[in-house]
Specification:
The complex is a heterotrimer of chains A (620), B (249) and C (215). In chain A, 65% of the residues lie in helices and 1% in strands. By secondary structure, chain A is an all-alpha fold. Chain A has 2 domains: 72 residues, no CATH class; 521 residues, Cytochrome C Oxidase, Chain A, CATH 1.20.210. Chain B is built from 4 helices and 10 strands; from the N terminus they run H-H-H-E-E-E-E-E-E-E-E-E-E-H. Chain B is elongated. Chain B is of the alpha+beta class and 249 residues long. The relative contact order of chain B is 0.13. Chain B has 2 domains: 95 residues; 119 residues, Immunoglobulin-like, CATH 2.60.40.420. With 215 residues, chain C is an all-alpha fold. A two-stranded parallel ribbon of chain C has the order 1-2. Classes of the chains: A mainly alpha (620), B alpha+beta (249), C mainly alpha (215). Chains A and B meet through helix 5, helix 10, helix 11, helix 12 and helix 13 of A and helix 2, helix 3, strand 7 and strand 9 of B. The complex binds protoporphyrin IX containing FE and copper (II) ion (CU) (2 copies). The site of one copper (II) ion has 7 residues of chain B, from loops.
Chain lengths: 620, 249, 215
């Protein structure tokens, strides 16, 4: 087997070839236009754009479309590649949603590890006061990278879950647009490569990239802008695909209110991603243009009379948070959906208040569009806006509360068992509770004027993101592992992972909040020992390492169990959900026959009821 | 040993849980007050912030206890016993309950909006007996007084309402003295303001709270709050020194 | 503009279930249509964002000095191009290939004229032809004009490319009276880009008073 038969290798070749071509195009155009040949910003922008296109061409994510433009019809390729080992399909363009789901999931996991390692690096620096091994410039770059790499990991992780599960859960053959699906995945890869390359040049604004700072720093910023633009475009296309799939490909009998609850969460998430993501893409594009062409959109410039005839920095914050607040719900809604999905299975009881839970996802998503200004209480915008955003933000607590209480209602009176997925689900609830409850204290503007940009914020959003994404993601991995591999993970190691990570995380987020109230600012390379936060900082660092260690256990577990785990059978959890009614590992064509829905999804404990029926041979 | 009822709707469950919630709320409330010692306490504007923060902590203690006690209790009481193969009780929801736990939080939201509005007003208003302009730049501060005095440290008289105008010409910074409570960004292209009435004499540290590049972490300045006569003396001294300087130029 | 080709592309049948025949085509068409409209909703946020930027930076009472005659002309051309696009689509529905080719190429031509107008007169890319005074780097007026017209022009360009592809495919006989999702999506896309301009035109040319910025 030749190396170039792997799509990803061809893609990388295309990436670097594209980069050279793009740079050359810019240099030549500049010469033709009579400008100096070299302008670092312009040359890099050209290089990046072409390298992303080069990757996509190389990997073959657009081949079918390009053929279509020439009138050549291409069949939708199915099944493992011919004349090549089966594993190679994961390294190239494949149209099966389960393959794409795994591609997303594994990429996400790798990014989680990389992003986490960045955190460990700068957490070690912060373990005591005084600058020891990270110079402030490097510190800022590593910190900023941590932010975006981790967010990329989350976005891809969610896409992985959605891609793998949604078609399975609604009994569909595949996603509505399989080629678009593959394209959306592969778009991420060059974007991530670009993001990682940015590190060589450095950038130091944190993930928020507020101008004017982000307009001044090194050229690494350009890479970040375009990388995030790429990942954003991928989110948009992916969510479009998911919405169409869920709205139009459900089987007979599956009304919206009979979908597995995770689908509701993904639907709400996709609505946000489809729309709000445009705003961050646009904002980052504008930053790139302001850097490259000097378009004064965000940076003020003054005329002779001293009037500002240029841009306004606050405008960026509005555009940025109009995406980035709803985005935090993108991060957590699928996770909350997983919690709602798993609790009934391990409680052997219906999900309490299915409709309320389903609609609360939509409510959170919609209210989430109205609250972005709570990130800007100190920004200097019109003071009355503080009041508006304070009230709208507090309102989010209502649908969030509905979810918590419904989970309690689901547990109450059940027959609970505590395998690893259930443990992580319960851990998720406890952690998300810390995160959620620390929300309103930031929403009342007065308290936020103190807490904003302190470590309290760091504690708040790590608790929400771990509770809303990381814990449920791990629960999901353990839970669907048998469906993916056909084997069971090792339960002892799973439990060990849980019992290290959960207390570790509680400790970490509480200590972060403590540091914040004691006056520790966020995003600083070093702190004054006089603050008295040294012990607390040390605790945070130790807890961080414990969490990292526990994740290593998980990785080991997942790798070894794929070989030696006991065979799981089709339905080890006795779930009613469609994906568990088919063989494990899930076959190439998931459903040999179309399914129909004949009951409610979560009627555990109702004798004689089933959720789905497989259509008889006669009515194909 | 307490004998627990079998049915999940038995009153007894709820009485036990209710009692536990009360107890844990109290314990947790004091615990939170201890581990979250909010530093804002040296200005008039800090007081409402501190008060509201601690009010929140009690609410958090209650809600946290409510959820966690219910959860832990369920885990204990409704766990599957050895050999039990039955399914859970079949109930799909309860509309009255759902409405209750939608409306009660809604009422809480209204209450906190009103409280939040009032505290916000208190935390952001004040007089302008003393006026200072603070200019932030990468990565340091200067302070200009209306009489032309320029200084690298900020000196304010205690108990006098001060209006601090904030200006930056490079990137966004943020003016924050933790002991004083509120912070405010310095935004290029506009002037922002902050009302502070220092209520405690002492030395504090002004720190930039918005990431502003390489040395953001060390963008600090000394703040001194002094009795009024000391303030006047400092000002006179500064004026004299500055006049000498201009004269000698 | 990958996403654009995408929506059209998805028209290709899955040969796997080609035996499903007409039903499958109808189902796929439904999905394609929904997908395209979702894409428009998404893009609506992009253009809405640009309008927000315009009102944030200029306010409702100022706008740059732009040549009103040119603005009116290019806007009319674009509106007319929507009519010719409609005619092309109708021709395809009636099976009149000749008329289809003429009208769709006419649409592309109108698009090019619009683009030329923007580039020569608004952007001043060819100062020898027309000395425009706005530059992207001069002030907030130039910056926003270039941001808005630039993003819109990008869509017009991709629309023209789309038209040429569809025209070529039609020439090769790839569409039929009943099955021409490629044509349909191209037409809807074109109308959409027109509608966006209907919002942009007043925002750039009509709302507020023209100000002359002193530098
Ligand atoms: C009850 C619900 C919530 C409320 C009321 C709330 C409120 C807030 C407020 C007011 C801020 C701004 C703090 C500041 O920067 O000074 C904030 C920050 C943040 N919140 Fe939440 N939040 C809630 C839930 C969530 C959830 C579910 C997430 C999901 C991940 C989340 C993620 C974040 C993040 C990432 C930030 C920090 C942004 C930054 O400054 O970089 N929050 N939250
Ligand atoms: Cu937010
Ligand atoms: Cu700073």
């Amino acid at each position: 087997m030749r190396l170039t038969s792997l799509g990803v290798v061809r893609g990388l070749v295309g990436y670097f070839a594209g980069m050279l071509i793009g740079m050359a195009v810019v240099v030549i155009s500049r010469l033709v236009l009579g400008m100096s040949a070299w302008d670092q910003e312009a040359v890099w922008v050209g290089g990046i754009i072409f390298s992303i296109i080069g990757f996509l061409l190389g990997v073959g994510a657009m081949s079918d479309w390009l053929k279509w433009t020439r009138g050549v019809q291409t069949p939708l390729r199915h099944g493992p590649p011919v004349n090549q080992p089966a594993w190679t399909r994961y390294f190239g363009v494949d149209y099966n949603h389960k393959v794409i789901g795994i591609q997303y999931g594994v990429t996400a996991f790798m990014l989680l590890v990389v992003g986490g390692s960045f955190a460990l690096i700068f957490r070690s620096e912060l373990a005591d006061s005084g600058i020891t091994f990270l110079q402030p410039g490097t510190y800022n770059t590593v910190l900023s990278m941590h932010g975006w790499v981790a967010l990329a990991a989350i976005l891809l992780g969610i896409a992985g879950i959605a891609n793998y599960l949604v078609p399975l859960m609604i009994g569909a053959e595949d996603m509505a647009f399989p080629r678009l699906n593959a394209f959306a995945y592969w778009l991420n890869v060059p974007a991530i490569v670009t993001l990682l390359i940015s590190m060589l040049f450095g950038w130091d604004s944190g993930w928020t990239a507020y101008p004017p700072l982000s307009l001044r720093g090194p050229v690494g910023y350009q890479m970040v802008f375009w990388a995030i633009f790429g990942i954003g475009l991928s989110s948009i296309l992916g969510s479009l695909n998911l919405i169409v799939t869920m709205l139009l490909m459900r089987p007979k009998g599956m009304t919206l209110f009979r979908m597995p609850i995770l689908c509701w969460a993904i639907l709400a998430t996709s609505i946000i991603q489809l729309t709000a993501t445009q705003l961050i893409g646009q904002a980052f594009l504008m930053l790139s243009f302001e850097r490259t062409l000097g378009m004064p959109l965000f940076n003020p410039i003054y005329n002779a009379a001293g009037e500002n005839i240029g841009g306004q920095p606050i405008l960026f914050q509005h555009l940025f948070w109009f995406y980035s607040h709803p985005a935090v719900y993108v991060f957590v809604l699928p996770g909350l959906g997983i919690i709602s999905e798993l609790l009934p299975v391990f409680s052997r009881k219906p999900l309490f208040g299915y409709r309320w839970v389903a609609l609360s996802s939509l409510a959170i998503a919609l209210v989430g569009f109205l609250v972005w200004g709570h990130h800007m209480f100190t920004s200097g915008y019109q003071p009355y806006l503080r009041v508006v955003f304070m009230i709208s933000t507090l309102l989010v607590a209502v649908p969030t509360g509905v979810k918590f209480f419904s989970w309690l209602g689901t547990l109450w009176g059940g027959r609970l068992t505590f395998q690893t997925p259930m443990l992580f689900t319960l851990g998720a609830i406890s952690v998300f509770l810390i995160g959620g409850l620390s929300g309103p204290i930031l929403a009342t503007a007065a308290t936020d004027l103190f807490l904003h940009d302190t470590y309290f914020i760091v504690g708040h959003f790590h608790a929400t993101i771990f509770g809303g994404f990381v814990f449920p993601f791990f629960a999901a991995i353990y839970y669907w592992y048998p469906k993916i591999t056909g084997r069971m993970y090792n339960e002892t190691m799973g439990k060990l992972h849980f019992w290290l990570m959960t207390p570790g995380f509680w400790l970490m987020s509480l200590a972060q909040m403590t540091a914040g109230t004691m006056g520790m600012r966020r995003r600083i390379a070093d702190y004054d020992p006089a603050l008295g936060v040294e012990n607390v900082q040390l605790l945070v660092t130790i807890a961080g390492f414990v969490i990292a260690f526990s994740i290593l256990i998980m990785i080991y577990n997942l790798f070894t169990s794929a070989e030696v785990g006991v065979l799981a059978g089709n339905n080890p959890w006795r779930s009613r959900s469609p994906e568990w009614q088919i063989p494990s590992p899930a076959p190439e064509h998931s459903y040999a026959r179309p399914i129909t829905v004949v009951g409610e999804p979560y009627d555990y404990g109702l004798a004689g009821s089933t959720y789905i029926a497989t259509a008889g041979a006669g009515d194909d | 040993m307490l004998k627990l009822p079998q049915s999940s709707t038995d009153r007894k469950h709820f009485m036990i849980v209710g009692a536990l919630v009360v107890v844990t709320t109290i314990i947790l409330g004091f615990f939170l007050l201890a581990i979250l010692p909010i530093k804002a306490q040296a200005s008039v504007q800090a007081e409402p912030i501190r008060w509201l923060f601690q009010l929140h902590l009690w609410l958090i203690a209650f809600l946290f206890s409510l959820v966690v006690v219910f959860m832990l209790y369920s885990l204990l009481v409704f766990r599957r016993r050895k050999g039990d193969t039955s399914e859970g009780e079949h109930f799909e929801g309860n509309t009255v309950l759902e409405i209750v736990w939608t409306v009660v939080p809604l009422v809480l939201v209204v209450i906190f909006s009103v409280i939040g509005l009032r505290t916000l007003q208190q935390a952001t208003s004040g007089g302008d007996d003393v006026q200072v302009e603070a200019v932030g730049f990468q990565w340091s501060w200067t302070f200009n007084y209306p009489n032309g005095v320029t200084s690298a440290e900020m000196v304010l008289p205690v108990d006098k309402p001060a209006l601090i105008s904030l200006r930056s010409n490079d990137v966004i910074h943020s003016f924050w003295v933790a002991e004083w409570g509120p912070k405010q960004d310095l935004v290029p292209g506009m002037t922002t303001t902050l009302h502070i009435t220092p209520s405690k004499v002492g030395e504090f540290s002004l720190a930039c709270a918005e990431l502003c590049g390489l040395s953001h972490w060390s963008m600090l300045a000394k703040i001194r709050v002094v009795p009024e006569d000391e303030y006047t003396a400092w000002m006179d001294e500064k004026l004299a020194a500055q006049n000498l300087q201009t004269a000698s130029r | 503009m990958a996403a654009v080709t995408t929506s059209a592309q998805a028209a290709a049948l899955h040969p796997h279930d080609a035996h499903a025949g007409h039903d499958h085509y109808a189902a796929q068409l439904r999905m394609n249509r929904l997908g395209l409209w979702l894409f428009f909703i998404s893009e609506g946020f992009l253009f809405g964002g640009l309008l927000t930027v315009r009102f944030f930076l200029w306010g409702a009472d100022t706008r740059p000095e732009l040549d009103q005659t040119i603005g009116l002309i290019v806007t009319s051309v674009l509106l007319i191009s929507s009519v010719s696009m409609r005619l092309a689509e109708t021709a395809m529905e009636r099976g009149n290939r000749k008329a289809f080719s003429v009208f769709i190429l006419l649409t592309a031509l109108f698009g090019l004229i619009f683009l030329g107008g923007v580039m020569v007169f608004e952007w001043g890319l060819f100062p020898s032809l027309y000395p425009a005074h706005l530059t992207p780097w001069g002030d907030k007026y130039g910056a926003v004009v270039f941001a808005m017209t630039g993003m819109h022009a990008l869509h017009v360009i991709s629309g023209i490319i789309f038209i040429l592809i569809v025209w070529n495919l039609a020439r090769k006989g790839n569409f039929s009276q009943e099955r021409h999702w490629g044509v349909e999506s191209c037409a809807i896309y074109w109308h959409y880009v027109d509608v966006v301009w209907i919002f942009f035109y007043p925002a750039l040319y009509l709302i507020g008073n023209a100000v002359h910025v002193t530098h």
